[in-house]
Protein 1
Amino acid sequence: MMDVGGNGSGLPVNNKQKAMLPNKSRGDFTRNLRKDSEGLSESPDLEFEYADTDKWAAELSELYSYTEGPEFALNRKCFEEEFRTHVSDKRWTELDAAQHRAHAMRLLDSLEVIAREKRLKVARAILYMAQGTFAECSSEAEVQHWMRYNIFLLLDVGTFSALVELLNMEIDNSAACSSAVRKPAISLADSTDLRVLLNIMYLMVETIQQDDPADRPEWKLIRETFRAELGSPLYNNEPVSVMLFGMVTKFCSGHAPHFPMKKVLLLLWKSILFTLGGFEQLLSIKVRKREELGLPPLPEDSIRVIRSMRAASPPASASDLIEQQQKRARREHKALIKQDNLDAFNEKDPYKADDSRDDEDDNDDNDNSIEAETFPLERDEVMPPPIPHPPSERVSFPKGLPWAPKVREKDIENFLESSRSKFIGYTLGSDTDTVVGLPRPIHESIKTLKQHKYVSIAETQISKEEEFQKTPLSGGEEEVEMCATELLYQGILPSLPQYMIALLKILLAAAPTSKAKTDSINILADVLPEEMPTTVLQSMKLGVDVNRHKEIIVKAISAILLLLLKHFKLNHIYQFEYMAQHLVFANCIPLILKFFNQNIMSYITAKNSISVLDFPYCVVHELPELTAESLEAGDNNQFCWRNLFSCINLLRILNKLTKWKHSRTMMLVVFKSAPILKRALKVKQAMMQLYVLKLLKVQTKYLGRQWRKSNMKTMSAIYQKVRHRLNDDWAYGNDLDARPWDFQAEECALRANIERFNSRRYDKSHSNPEFLPVDNCLQSVLGQRVDLPEDFQMNYDLWLEREVFAKPISWEELLQ
């Protein structure tokens, strides 16, 4: 496709060349550009609804790579061989519940055999059951019905704990690890046992977490019991998620390159999602915690507000259009007088005078040529009305801004401090009530600020932690609710830094912007076939499979990180800060920016899937003949759900890492994130735009006046869509421009607080002996049972003679 910033021959045109064009041709040229620009940006709003997961069928199909296709028939064969030895005249779907249960128990007993080949056959038979005994089904809905039935049956007879034990055996299988390390190329065959086990476990977790209103009461009970067991240290004395994290680090260390990492990450994500809860549960936990802490309720339901937002900016008024045309005329006039002035309107780094590489960066992907701007919020034309949505999805708001403004206690203190020093000449520290001597308008301002004061759960937790640190003796024992989040944090605490580094290593290897390097980890072990493709069609199919494989890994990691950050933040702010800090130390911020430094529209509209090969479609229908044309065409979806989901998750992670952290915000500025983020605004999806605008808002004051001047539409979009913090001088940065930032000092202070919290709450072995209570009761001290060593007991008579009878004791002195 020709660049939109092109000159008709596909060559890019920069601003200086544009200024040298004759007047008439330049007018035609910009008009043509405008048409192209409109053609690109008039793409409709993406009808994407953000949720914890995609549709159930999509989540099931993403478990399998297309290379695994032949294994469906193999699983069926293993099941039928086993089944026919016991039941010869009926099909599985014709048996009654007692016969189903008896056969499931037989399979479970057979799993405990020593011979590996026999065990693998039985595991495949169980996998076929978990896949819904598809050969006896005629439709996808029927497959899904039998999947639910069979999986609840398998769980009820105790299959999951047997699978966890087998998985542990495979993880510790040193022979498989050493042979995989020595192999020059790892393929699907190296991970067969692991893949079968992980497939069954994933299908069980994914199916059971789906809440169906038509479920039987006993199934609902099984689901809640399984949720509790999965999140508690029941299996192997640790939550299942901790065991899977261990697999991730072992894989990244190079000791087990054959681990099927996509399946491990998908199971890890679904285990965390099931045990801790998704975004709806997070909101209800937040509401409950605020009630318990005596804080006022939330000003709005953030999920509903975001779902009701529209992607594009409202149409410009006629007066705005006239003003913009006048501005454009002035720009063209300036360009003829002094060509270099046009560079000011280019999006450039405020800290760099001139860099040809930046120019290339900004002009590629038809991004930043002034007249050819394709981002809807930046264009000068009137936008067409967005696609109407069904009324049931919309929340009706009064006219105005979507979010209620918020103010922190600290903001009120700062405002009063500056007002007092200005009008009275003295300050009162953190006193926010005394307004004596201040003029009337200041009283009104303070009243308005206090009306919108918002105290977060995090601030309350920090102040409570400070109290515990100040008064370790009189503060009393802290009551820690042993919820699933707390159990998971305790499980991953000892190795959390390694887990974060491992996840980011895999994310880097799976990112589309990463170049293949010899030292990077091989994440394709569970997608590459034993024999590499020999025809063009096979190569194309494998190419699609590899790209899809990487996209699914990015989706799983982004979801894992976001869920953990959100749950830890609610459970205790310092748990969140501990994880966030290790992500920052492992270069998560530049990694996410590197991920977005690509043509994000083409990533979101990528068609790396072959729908006829997706499970359960492929096992129910006759497969059509695949051709190169059908593979190239892909599906007819407007966008790729998983890629848009991943992008939103990564932006949310970036927001979580940088919010209220001055040093990390400055990292965004130093890594030149503004042009990268602004390109991401081309995606016409409200939620994604909101998180991009949030990231631009925090750094706007540091980007310089020229950037703000040439990005006024982005500034107004921030004003319309992002929550207002009263007193936040985000758009001008009058006194903060020169504020120094010391990354090390800020992070060290935070780290000290985190370490104090972790050692106080979790490190019982190193607690200060000075603070331990002393037992002064003679009876309880003498009544304590003391375990004496065996050699002492044998020589007790000798010790008694030497230490007691042989020494004279003055009882009078002792009693006095």
Protein 2
Amino acid sequence: MADTDVALPPLRMEELQHSPSSSSISSSSVSVSNSSCPSSPSCSSSCSAHQQHQQHQQAPPSPSSASSLSSGALIDPAVAEVACQEVLQKVKLRDGEEPEPEQEAEPPRPLANGTAAHHHHHEEGGAGAGKPPRIREEEDDEEPAEGPARRTQRARDVQSKQSWLLRLFESKLFDVSMAISYLYKSKEPGVQAYIGNRLFGFGDGDVDAYLPQLLNMYVHMDEDVGDAIRPYVVHRCRQSVGFSLQCAWLLGAFSSDMHISTQRHSRGTKLRRLILSEELKPVGRGRRQHAPALQVGPSREPGERAPSNPSVSLGNGLKRTASNPKVESSPEETVRLTPQREFIKSLMGIGKRLATLPTKEQKTQRLISELSLLNHKLPARVWLPTAAFDHHVVRVPHTQAVVLNSKDKAPYLIYVEVLECESFETSSVPARIPETRIRCTRSAENLPDCGVTAGERSGNVSTVPNYDNDDEAWSVDDIGELQVELPEIHTNSCDNISQFSVDSLTSQESKEPVFIAAGDIRRRLSEQLAHTPTTFRRDPEDPSAVALKEPWEEKVQRIREGSPYGHLPSWRLLSVIVKCGDDLRQELLAFQVLSQLQWIWEQERVPLWIKPYKILVISSDSGMIEPVVNAVSLHQVKKQSQLSLLQYFLQEHGGYTTEEFLCAQRNFVHSCAAYSLICYLLQVKDRHNGNILLDSEGHILHIDFGFILSSSPRNLGFETSAFKLTSEFVDVMGGLDGDMFNYYKMLMLQGLIAARKHMEKVVQIVEIMQQGSHLPCFHGSSTIRTLKERFHMSHTEEQLQVLVEQMVDGSMRSLTTKLYDGYQYITNGIL
């Protein structure tokens, strides 16, 4: 029975001659008669019959074989089908394909040429409805190699790929980075629409990290991408005022790259107008009575009724709602975005007016005056978008603001007092406390049951210097004797805040004021300064040096003690840099790349340190930057201390063997290695000492990423080294033969290896932002290609080690670095 041959009808023989002989199905097919369905009892007999057929493929079937078929015993068709399916499964396993599971919804049918007789309606309906079809090679190979069969095969391949994509999109590995990548690269509208819906499943913070990429795709890519993104953006705008404004600002900035005629009717401009029109109100939320958004002018008279919808504008010539019927009659929702827009507009207007003044002294005086006027309109339902928590702005200490170093423009740094709240949209705005009518003092002397004796109070008297003017803080002729207040010495609930008018300051009813001679104040200040390693002098040409050098904790305490809101437990101090005339979109791109690299190095456990600072793009020529606290530039260090970098470290942190110095040295190495890699990967230029900061813990950090990738100052490409590594940097690390210098090179190697493992995450951030952009960093057509090349994906680790050694050596010996520093000193006075 095992040697029994199966005769093939002439029609089937002709079909097999036209079928591909190399397919997996032809190697395992068994011919079965439609009428009698004869078959061998085993897989071996079936394969033997097919092999014999292949050997005599050109000859017609012999009569003897036909007679043997008619005289032989017939095998049950079900047994033959099982045998053939086993062969098919083995062939598929051999070719590395996933075997097809058995169908339970439909009983098996007789086979023809080894192909299961499945019908299309079985997959389109019933148990298989809604599921992507499987790949069925046996049916494909039965079709002719050309014509409709090839198109059918391609369609099935696409369906198979979509089924695998669906499994990926629904897996736990699918994150926002992958979603943005597929949304950008996919050309299938169905895939794009699915990812657009998938965005709703991610956290708001995760999506916000890629918000510039989403909005840039919305503005500059085709309609299918825009239609996929729009529902998510509109939904979030309905939920959040902050998100709405951020989207409106970014859409305006990205649309500025378009031609003016196209820009007016572009998709981005239309969405921006929709957001600013206040039509995107929260769905299903009742009307909310807002607290006064901004108060203009003096406080109301006693008994005067508060307006229901006060004026919200911060511009000049604005009036109260009570005298402005247009504002009064507007609906409640119209004040949802306006207060914050006007607050930001006021800050930008100050920067533009400062740029017209010639000297820093004049700019500083004008800045203080402008901020003093702004304080009359606070508190309000406004906030700093760079902060990480909800709050309301209550006061700007105008005398603390400083103008930063800039040759042509006037960026300025301000400190902002805020009160933390649950939601800046729904929480009530704090009441205004006029500065001229109150003072804050400790009332412990009036509360004997609090456990504070008179001796304890007299032994805990401190002095607070007056920094609220630009004159000398202390003068014997002007001061003589000063009355100072008691500090906070405990947090008992019975320790309250007393508010006094100006007249009560000199009242005879106040109990036992404490007097301290001016000589004692000077002595105590001298003792305090003696413990400070380095002090910065006030420089009219660089007024920010003293403000930046002051430790942040001391600054917070000092401003809080002089603030009418400082006694409130939710009081916080924030700072922000306002820039006008600069396009911060490149800064925003650098911030995203630095944040991604920071995440990569944390995941790979590489101890590199960087400090990405937040960037807020307001328009194509204005924005706000989060300052780095407790940090000064290397230029300011050299100018104020007149010391080398190593000597400054020794003066700040102690001798070579002290724990503080060793810790600061290690921090310097960790940060220097990280920023060396960043400068190499992003090709950061304009690396003079004014753009490199040093913080109080020894970390070095780079700022001002205005020249990255394909751009350089004046497009000269003068700085040719991979990164800036001066001899002073090497001295802090212990010299060329020091262990810390070798550690620096090892960290660079580890950081580069870790970064190239996640190269696609970094590259896609840059690649998407190149779409439709006219930024200088995307000049030329090779920006993305050269960025990928700098990751050296084809190098071994040994080759990467050699590369790092070469880059370090070349950067130390770079002549262009020294020449560029000299050029900056001659032209801008930067040391």
Protein 3
Amino acid sequence: MADVEQQGRKQSEEFTDESEEEDSEDEPKLKYERLSNGVTEILQKDAASCMTVHDKFLALGTHFGKVFLLDIQGNVTQKFEISSVKINQISLDESGEHVGICSEDGKVQVFGLYTREGFHENFDCPIKVVALHPQFSRSNYKQFVTGGNKLLLYERNWLNRWKMSVLHEGEGSITNIQWRSNLIAWANNVGVKIYDIGTKQRITNVLRDNVSLRPDMYPCSLCWKDNCTLIVGWGTSIKICVVKERNPTEMRDLPSRYVEIVSAFETEFFISGLAPLADQLVTLYFVKENSDHMDEEFRARPRLDIIQPLPESCEEISSDALTVRNFQDNECRDYRLEHSEGESLFYIISPKDIVVAKERDQDDHIDWLLEKKKYEEALMAAEISFKNIKRHDVQKIGMGYINHLVEKGDYDAAARKCQKVLGKNMELWENEVYRFKTIGQLKAISQYLPRGDLRLRPAIYEMILHEFLKTDYEGFATLIREWPGELYNNMAIVQAVNDHLKRDPANRTLLTTLAELYTYDQRYDRALEIYLRLRHKDVYQLIHKHDLFSSIEDKIILLMDFDKEKAVDMLLDNEDKISTDRVVEELADRPELLHVYLHKLFKRDHHKGQKYHEKQIVLYAEYDRPNLLPFLRDSTHCPLEKALEVCQQRNFVEETVFLLSRMGNCRRALQMIMEELEDVDKAIEFAKEQDDAELWEDLISYSIDKPPFITGLLNNIGTHVDPILLIHRIKEGMEIPNLRDSLVKILQDYNLQILLREGCKKILVADSLSLLQKMHRTQMRGVRVDEENICESCHAAILPSDMAKPFSVVVFHCRHMFHKECLPSSGTVPGVQFCNICSAKKRGPRSGILELKK
């Protein structure tokens, strides 16, 4: 079968490659192959005159009066000697069990292929056509028609005899008959008629357009598309006729059906045959002799076109000029087009050749794409239709695409396609890698090599790494980062990198890559040394990931020199692995680094490094004075005498003032502020913090002869000290800057205090009144008393079981309830009773609010 397909493809190329003069970029719609085997031998000695197609077999008639039954491949299965002259027509019923044959000498035979019983008759004129009823095999449809000078209908009656009736005559020779369902269409010299065998009515007459053409030279082509649609081709004219039911109200004496021509148009060439293809038409053309734009040789070649009919024109979909045997000797009447409805096969019959056209399948589409070097589209088509393709293999197409890209020099695209095409075929992968090595393009394929579940031999990966190591350090580093270490022999690559480092020992790329290789090989200490040497950002990640804290105890200074913040954070986060004492010991010779560490430790926990607080005083004083005062304020373990000594040595006034005040020597601290800082605002602020009258007195005494200080005091002490005390002590005639503004401010502050007091008083009175009213409303509400309430004294139900008897109940505002007889006698205030429970809890007296009596 494969040989037949291959032969068919070669024949298709033979028909089209040498014949077509159209745009080669347009993919053909049909493919062609010559019907060979027994047909070849028949046509060498004889010539084809007609052929009929059934889904199961073919029936071929010849000029020497023979009929051959052929299989689909053209092998002869049966042979009938019918006449000595040309067979004009062969007709088969739908079942393929009966055949009708007519010949030029007037012979007509209708018989079963499995029995020779049937109809045999000789007429005195040539019989051009014969047509069996489509259901001829069924007993009640034993009918057929013949066409010569008359259209004759033969029917078998109940006596098993044939009854003849004339359906039409008088319009010349009948050249074509097509029978579909109950409709018989035939063509004569005048036009095309349709006869309804069911109603026994002729329902239409479609006239011939070009009467100048000889009907015997340019015969009419008829084809039923379905049970109601007839396609008529005659000369250069095509008409599509639809048989429709007539409205019963319009019938009168008219047939029950009528024909509507839905499409009519002219073509460029003469029509030799028609066949439907979905909603399109397949047309066999005989090229006109007066086509000036064609040379003499090409002019006589038949054309098979696919067209899309429109109401008044058509659109050409595809067109193929065919080279059939002896085409130069053929006329329009020598060609016929037959089709097999079941498989969309189209047979082009000529005297010396029979060509089969069929729709191109996905394999043919891929063939065409590959021929045009459209490998991308071919591969995509094969992947989409991989279940339907028979002759092609997706991987082979992909390999062809890769070869094509390599030939073009597009190595990156070729390598990228390897990932998709080669899949999990290790042998193909390795072959491609070696091919890329041969052409010097290992780099191109490196990033696409498999690295997951499918892996090549380690030697393959090592070969590529060595190639990169020779020419591209950055590319080598990228592969080491991207490739899992299991792909190659790690030790071999480490040795190769070390060899290159001997020639270039300071190369950062190689050193970083070597560290990564050591990391994968779990030689973390070696990797850590390289990272620290390079000051690489990944050093901290390496330490954390592989718990290398024991390896960095003697490398703390290196880590902090690289990045103090990250190093300190790491050390503090892992105090359980590297103790604070160990870090302090390592940093003893680098006090600036020690300060950074202890400062962050203090920020995290004020008590954790308390034994180093004394040392921190000096470190803060030396390296970070801005944080010294906050440290002194927050630390509860700092020796104040040592801190005071350090601050006094360095003349840190603010820190000394704080320490003196914390040690209780506030007067000395205030004196330093006034004498050394000469900052009245700070002095006033200090006095406010201490809130000591003696300090205010000292401040006033020190400031009384200093006008700027007096101004500061007048502006700020109004809310802490009576300004009159200061004003009375100001000397007569002393000039004080901004005195008026200061006095105005004192008066404004006093006025503001008065307003605040009055405002607060109003708010207090309003709130008290509101709460009193709320309490009054609450106490005035009724209290529900029912059988669930109990007496707080005797704990019996507050209401008697017999409500008819008189009773008396007392309810207090606190919601406690008593039987009147259970309450003790009135207290010191006559006529006023109090809740015993609330009085006992010292919540204040609660007078009775309600007395129920009955």
